[in-house]
Every structure is written in C-alpha cells, then in structure tokens.
Amino acid sequence: MLERIYRVKGIGLLHDADGRPHSLKKATLVYADNGVGKSTLASIFRSCASNDPELIRRRKTIDGNCPPEVLLQFSNGQQSSFAKENWNNSHPELLVFDADFVEKNVYAGGQVSTDQRKNLLQFALGSSAVNAQREYDQADTAALAASQLVRDLTNQLTGFHQGVSLQQFRDLAEVSDADNQIAALHELAVEAQNIGLIQAKALPKKLDEPAFDVTHIFRILESSLADIDLAAEQRVKQHLDSHAKPNLERWISDGHAYGETESCPYCNQPLQGVELIQAYRSYFNKDYNELKASVADLARLISNVAPEAIVERLQASFATASATIDGWQEHVEIPPPEFDCEAANEKLAVIRERLEALRLAKEANLLETVGSDDAKNELLGIWSEIAGIIKSCNDGIDNAVNLITAYKASLAAVNLDGLRQAINGLEMAKTRHRQDVLDLFSQLDAALAQEVATKAEKQTKKDALNGIMQTTLERYKGRINRLLSAFGAQFSIPNIDFNYKGGLRSNYNLHMRGANIELTGGIPDFKTSLSESDKRTLAFAFFVASVESDADLANRVVVIDDPMCSLDLNRKQQTRLILKRVHDACEQLIVLVHDIHFMRGLRNEILRTSPPQEIACVKLKTVANRYSNFDEIDIDKECESAYFKCHRVLGEYLNGAAQSSMEVARSIRPMLEGYLHRRFPGLINGGLLFGQVIDAIKNAPQGSPLIHAQNITDELTGINSYAGQFHHDTNPSADQVQIIDGELRQFVERAINVVHAGMA
Fold first, then answer.
1. DSSP letters along 680-743, please?
2. What span, in angstroms and rounded, lies between the C-alpha atoms of 223 and 366?
3. 639 close to 730: Cβ distance less than 8 angstroms
4. What angle, 0 to 180 degrees and rounded to 10, lies between the N-to-C axes of helices 248-256 and 341-364?
5. Does residue 644 share a domain with residue 753?
6. Is residue 671 a part of any domain in this protein?
7. Structural domain includes residue 665
C-alpha cells in the first residue's frame, strides 16, 4: 500500500510538492481543480508501476529549476525513488486508469488502432494467462530462432547454387572425373565462341539511289503569259531591241517597281502621257511578277535536284560497304565491287551545267518558253547513266552478300549455351560435394528438425493459451456488458476474441441500436457514433472489468484519475458503486477527482462499511508561482450550501469559536432566507430580497402555506432591521458599520431560535 508521498519535484506543476504531512489510507481521495496536477500525479504512479522514466521526463516542469525527483513510501518500509531519470525500484501492483491508459489500450483521436487492441488484450488477460502467455512467447521465440537459423543456413548455401533450387543442388550426384570433362567442354566452347563471332559479323549494305525529278523545273522553264497587252508588248520589245543590251528587260522590270510616282526618279520630269511608261505598266503586271519570282527560285530547285554532295554520299556508302567486304576476305574470297566516282561526277556536272543554261535563258527572256521535252529527256538519259553506275556497284555488293551468306550457312552450328550449361553443372556438382558444403547441409538438416519440433511445441502452447483466452475473454465480455448496462450505455460488445495476425491482439466490435459499429472507418463508425462520454465509459468499463478479474486484486493498488464519465446522475451513482466495490476488493484505492460533490458521495459510500480512519482526503492546491502542493481538505465544508455554511458560522460563533464579526453579521440574513426557502419550497421567489420575502409572508392569501409563518414576521422584521445594515443591497456603507459584540450575539441567538423553534 502507498502510505505517503514524501515529495515530488520538477514534474509538471508539482515543482516542489511536499506530501509528508498527509498519510494515505486504504481509501485515498485526492481533490484538485482542472489544470492543477491530477494527471501529473497519475503519470507518476504509472511510471512507477511500469518503470517507464519517459512518462516523467516528458512532464518536466517547463520553467523549473530542479531535475525531476519523486520519493514514495510504501508499506513495510519500502521506498521508491525517482532520481537521475530512473526509478530505484518499480511497483507493478499499481493499476492506473488515466488518459494514458485510454490512449494506449482503447482509442485515440476517435479511432481504435491495432496497437491499442494488442495492448488491451494484454491488459484484459491479466495474471490469469500470464504463465500461458509466457510459455507461448518462449515457444514462439524458440520457433522464430529455429526458423531464423534455417534461413541463415539456407542463405549461406544460396551462393553455391545460383540458377537451380536448393533441392536440385542437394540432389546433385558426385562426378569422379569432373575436371577432365570440364577441360574437354572448354575446348569445344572456344571453337563455338569463334563461330559465334563470325555469325555475328555485319553484312555489307547497298548504295541508296537518289531521286532525280526535274518536272517542276521544266514546268517553270516552259511557262509564259497570255494576258499581256500585245501593243504594250510590241512597244517594250522595240525599245529593248533598240538598245540591244543583255538582261535589259530584267533591269527595267526591277526598276519599274520604283516608277509608281508621277515623275521620273532620275530627272524628275513628269511621266504623265509618256507612251513608253504606259506600255511598261501594262507589260510588267502581277502575273509577270509571279513568273519572275518562280524563275528566281530555279537556282534553289536545281541545287536540290542535283546537289554536288550526291556523289560524295554515294562514295562514302561505297567505302563503308568495301570495308565490310574486306573484313570477310579472310573467310571467303569476294570480288570487290566498283564505283566510278569520277564518271558520276562528270555526268552530274553536265546535268547541272545544262540546267543552269536553261535557267539563265529563262531569266533573260521571261515571257518565252525555254526547254523542251527533248532537253528534259536528254537530262533523264544522263541521270540514267549515273543510276547505271550505282546499279553496277550494288550488283557487286549483292554478289558479296550472297557469297557471305553461303559461307555462314556452311559453318557447323554448335550450341554454345548447352556447352556452358554442361560446364556449370559439373562445376556445381564439384561444389556440392566440397567438405564445407557438406557441413552446411548437415547443419541445415539438424536446423530443419529443430524447426519442426519448435513449431509443434509452439502450437501446443498456442492451443493452451487459446483455451485460457477464450474462457477469460468470455468472462471479460460479460463483465464489460454488465458494467455498460449499469452505466445506461446504449451500446454493447456482442463479441470479443483474438487473433495472431501482426502479433497477438484483441478483436471486438460494438453493437448499437441494431447496427454494428466499426472501430476504424466505415459507417457507422466508432468516432462519430459514440459521444466522448460513451468512449470514456467504454474505456472505464474495460479497466474495471480487468481489475475485477484479477485474481491478485487483494494485493493491488488501484489508481483512478478522474473516473467521471459524464454529468449524468445515473453514471455518477454507478461509478461510485463500482469504485466502492473495487475498494472493498483491493488493497488500496486512490481516486483523483475534480468534482468535490462526487468525492463526498464516494466517501460516504465507502463509510457505509469502512471506519473513517481508513479514509484519507487530500487536495492539490495552487501555491506561489501557480505551482501546486498537497493540503488538507474538509469535504463537508467544501460541499456545504450557503445556508448550511451560514448556519455553521453562526453556531460556531455562539460556541465561542473565533470568527470574523463582519462574516457572522452577514451570515444572519442568508441563513434565514435559506431556512424559509427550505420550509416553503417553491413558494418564495428566489430573486426577492429578505424584506420582500417578509412582505410576501405577511400578504399571503388565505389557504397559502405561508400563513403559517405569519407568527414570526415581526421577529423576522426586527432581525432584518439589524442584519440588513451589513449588506450593500440595502446599505451602500455596509463596510463602515461598527459591530458591537453583545448586540451581534443577541441577534444571532434570535435568528438561530427562529430556525430551531420555527416561531418567535
């Protein structure tokens, strides 16, 4: 049992908390407002139970000046201290329900994860399955180790049998003359390797014959214009002939583009009425300009049809083919092909010269037809001579290809891959029967036998554990559903079981209003179907069901941080009854609460069967720098209403207890108001001042219960005339009123007498 919290330093708001004056009992109730340190205290207990220093390290006081430190005093003189970021010893008998329990075992962020279901199963099974779980884990570890050894040995053997299975490698027979067979196969492989290289050598490629098409060029050369004015044409021709200058027509045509003005660009004389100028304008029209542009493009067209690089490209292709043929000459005699590059160049030059002459003639006489079918056919004939040179060369290359192909077909075909496979097979057979490989197979056989044995043992332990878990979880499910029913929850757990996928974990689902609730995703799902209060209720039911299933509960210290699932009165009452039941069965119950009235109700519930000396009530209070410390608490005083508080203050004053005179004086009127409200519930408006309450009694109609207090209205008026002067609602200067003790005592006695006697 935890007897005392000696000190807590540097952890959350418990920066320097001293709990030595406060002895803890079998039932220890700790009150604290939210944000004062309840959860920090619960985490300290959880850290001590699980020996997990991280739970404390992550709660280190943010602005603290001392390292985390804890000293807990347990029964039989045992102490647990946390210092230098470690516990000197842990106390696994501490069972803690807090936010960490919910997040670790039940849900977080509205979802239930695989890890939470794993942890819940471990928690739910408790000590009943500890031995079976341990034996299964040991068997599982042994089986995993045996399987790992098999894998390790198999991996070691992998390097020796590339390309075949382990069983095929194991089955290889020993070959006595393997080395001689391998040497003979290598000789065959060398020969096959050379044949393969010959088969892979490239063949010569023929020359590509270029295209030769002069149709478009001759279409331009033969083009003329039919819509030029004949008189204008005759006048321009006479003028041109009179000068007898070459290319004069082109020169005038180009200059005509600058003649669209009213005066001559040379002498600035007016052009209006000049007959020759009018003839120029008719002669050099739009069609003429288009024809001139086509003729100007002839040079480009001739260059494209008969480029000088044609023969160079043919010669390069011929050189490549000749080099390829030369590479085959060591294997087969091949007459070399020929390409008459000089003749081809000469004939191409003739074609270019004749096309150029036709172009110049056309430029000199744009309107005249230049060239003829004979000229065109002559050019095609010259080109056919070039094509003949190319064909003659290609015939030689074709002959070479035929000779090479025939030679390759004559070579004996040898299966090089088959030779290599045979060599590899012999090499692998040698490896299979090496001593180190034989040793590995012996170890593997022993490991396989061990694997079979450990897996059988694992299955035996698994079957035993399954039987215990099925029985335990069925009881656990029944306890959970009874708790949920007691809490008035509208959901239940129809089934809870387990599986080993991804590690041993629980499987369960919720049933609500005829529908199954998915734990993760789905519609409806856990996150949206259950309120936060319902989720907390489920987590609390999981915890309590496991705790009450614990066969060693009598030796457990159960810590509950904020057990309130909601403000629902039924759940409050059921929570008190459950905690009372846990208290009766465990060694010690520690409850951390923020609801003082719930704390008083739980204390009173425990007092029904336990003496007061077995109950300790402590609170965490705020001290300097908004840190927290332990302090005593009087639950009854903390919970009393204003009426009972005022009644107590007046009674203590009459009994001689030191009191503030002003507090006593100001307690008279609210005590009498509280008395009248309780004597006549629902008949006196809560917003009335005391004087107005007296008037309501005086003016009560016949038949109203208030008439039974009319016999004390004079006394109440007299007391109010004295007590009213101490309240600001009737006297703004209430703080300055001088109090005479004898007079105060007289009115206190009169007020108490009204309450006790019910009359003046």
1. STTTS-TT--HHHHHHHHHTPPTT-GGGGGGGGHHHHHHHHHHHGGGSTTT-TTGGG----HHH
2. 9
3. no
4. 60
5. yes
6. yes
7. yes
- The pLDDT assigned to 5 comes to 96
Give the span between the Cα atoms of 557 and 73, in whole angstroms. Answer: 13
DSSP percent split of the chain into helix, strand, coil, nearest 5: 60, 10, 30
User: Are both 668 and 568 inside the same structural domain?
Assistant: no
Average predicted confidence (pLDDT) for the chain: 85
Split into its structural domains, the chain has a count of 2
Q: What is the CATH number of the domain that holds 37?
A: 3.40.50.300
Residue written as tokens 């036709």? Answer: 358
Q: What is the pLDDT of residue 287?
A: 67
d(CA 651, CA 193): 120
| Residues composing the chain | 760
Residue-wise pLDDT tens digits, 53-96: 999 999 999 988 889 999 999 998 899 999 999 999 999 999 99
How far, in whole angstroms, is CA 218 from its chain's centroid? Answer: 75
Helix/strand/coil (H/E/C) assignment for every residue in 479-524: HHHHHHHHCCCCEEEEEEEEECCCCCEEEEEEEECCEEEECCCCCC
pLDDT of residue 63: 87
The pLDDT, as a whole number, for residue 465 is 80
Determine the residue type at 585. A
Query: Which of 637, 660, 677 is where one domain is finished?
Result: 637
Q: Quick one: pLDDT at residue 228?
A: 47
CA dist 575 → 94, 562, 585 (Å): 20, 11, 15
Sign of the Cα torsion 326, 328, 329, 335 reads negative
314-339 residue pLDDT tens: 899 989 999 999 988 888 899 999 99
Q: In which domain, by residue range, is 727 found?
A: 640-757
Please state the rounded mean pLDDT for residues 274-302: 70
DSSP 586-634: SSEEEEEES-HHHHHHHHHHHHTTS-GGGEEEEEEEE-GGG-EEEEE--
